[in-house]
Design brief:
By secondary structure, the protein is mostly helical. 46% of the residues lie in helices and 5% in strands. The chain has 2 domains: 10-61, Ribonuclease H-like superfamily/Ribonuclease H (Nucleotidyltransferase, domain 5); 66-137, no CATH class. It has helices at residues 10-25, 42-51, 67-86, 99-108, 118-123, 131-137; strands spanning 30-33, 54-57. α3 packs across α4 (99-108).
């Protein structure tokens, strides 16, 4: 799950958290965050508390406490980079315009360590779309078939 935000203000993050995560997918059990001031504040804590979401902050100055999230961001950035560089069409020239497509690719590909896709783990079912057919229709520059995320 990911959503572009215009800025890191508390109101922007709060609104995006509610609209793009909680309202769309339901209440998560836990949200793990780093200790950035725009995420570690009373307003975000209140939203999570009122929604019944546990909020967990990684240990400050211990970068390995965020390693899974940072790895997911790196993978997502790599997919976005491939999409932006794949096609000269104007709609793919800005990362936020192709974020949903990148998330779709990321969520539907099996992860190397888990052997399941994030979609399968989150929804406890296989995706309804025939993802392999979609991949076959894409140019090799867009999807690296030799590498799993």
């Amino acid at each position: 799950m990911a959503a572009p935000i215009k800025n890191t203000s508390t109101s922007e993050i709060s609104s995006t958290l509610m609209k793009e995560i909680i309202y769309r997918y339901g209440r998560p059990i836990l949200i793990k965050s780093d200790n950035a001031a725009y995420l570690n504040n009373a307003a975000i804590e209140q939203i999570c508390k009122s929604a019944g979401v546990k909020l967990y902050y990684g240990r400050p100055y211990i970068h390995t406490s965020q390693s899974l999230v940072k790895r997911a961001f790196l993978s997502l950035k790599n997919v976005i980079s491939k999409i932006v560089n794949f096609d000269s069409q104007p709609q793919w020239k800005h990362w936020d315009d192709c974020l949903n497509l990148a998330i779709h690719f990321y969520n539907n590909l099996p992860q190397m360590t888990l052997k399941f896709s994030p979609y399968e783990l989150f929804f406890e079912t296989e995706p309804y779309l025939d993802f392999h057919t979609i991949v076959e229709q894409c140019d090799k520059k867009l999807v690296d078939r030799e590498r799993q995320f």
